Each structure stands twice: as structure tokens, then as C-alpha cells.
# Entry
Amino acid sequence: MLQSKYRDCILEWRRLVRAKQIADEERIISADSLGTFYQFVNKRTANRSSIGVIRDDNGSLLTNSLDKANAFNKYFSSVGVVDNSTVPSCHNIQLNNTLETMVISETDVIRSITSLKNSGPDSLPPVVFKRLKCVLCHPLTILFNQLLSVGGMPTSSKGAFIVPVYKKGIASN
# Structure
């Protein structure tokens, strides 16, 4: 009985919070102010997370962003392989599977949007795409299928942000 009341309170609270969010977003839209809209978006795109304190090779704690970047650069350059500009030869390779028969559906696009975790190069938060996924899925499906049909990809879409993610153990190591 008590658990049921608690669950009902939680559901009501979530409904009220969501209703408040929707009301705020509708107020921003109806204000017809570009400045207000960008302020709303920028508040949600601000990078709220940062890399915590890390320890360098000497055991010193690094808190400065530049020092952390240099430590990561030193590590990743030490484990990387130097490119000798030689392309290995590949003779007599049979391609059994090609992308010519691949078709992306609106369901695929919606599923991908739903699983978004981080913002991309445009710095828009995933929540923008998730809330607009029903509107965006059709044009994105057409776009992706056109890109597959011509076998090309815009150069701007080939870039990636690589961010080290803390998984386990002591974060400062």
C-alpha cells in the first residue's frame, strides 16, 4: 500500500516536471526571440563534465587542462605507430558484401537518435534530436540513403571527437 502511494507520487512528480519543461519550451518558442532560444540551447550544450585530476608518469597530480592534455598526448603518442606512408598491397581480394543493397529505414534512424549519448560537432545536446526525432527521421532517412547510393560522405561528417572516458579504478591514476 505504502509502496503503491510512493510510486504514484513519483509518477505524478515526473509528470509535473515534464509538464513544466514543456511549458518552458513552449514559452521560449512563443517568445519568437532568437536570443532567448540560443540562451536556452547554450545552457544545455555547456560542457558540464571535465576530466578529473590525473597522475603523470612521475606521480604528480595534474589539475591544469593543458597539463592533462599534454599528458594524454604523451601517452597516446607513445602507444601509437608511426606512419611510414606505405600502403600495403592487397591482391586478389574478393568482396562478397557491398553497401549497394543496404537501405536505412526510418525505424533505424529513430533507434539511432534514441541511443544518442553525446553532442556532435554542432554542439547541440542529444535531447534536441530526441525530442524532434519524429520530425527528423524522414529527411534523415532520405539523406542517409542518398549518401549510400552515391557511395560518398561529406568531409565534415568524417571527423570525430575522441574523449577518454573513465571506466574503473581510481580516477586520478
Q: What stands out?
A: Residues 120 and 161 are 8 Å apart (CA to CA). Residues 99-154 form one domain.
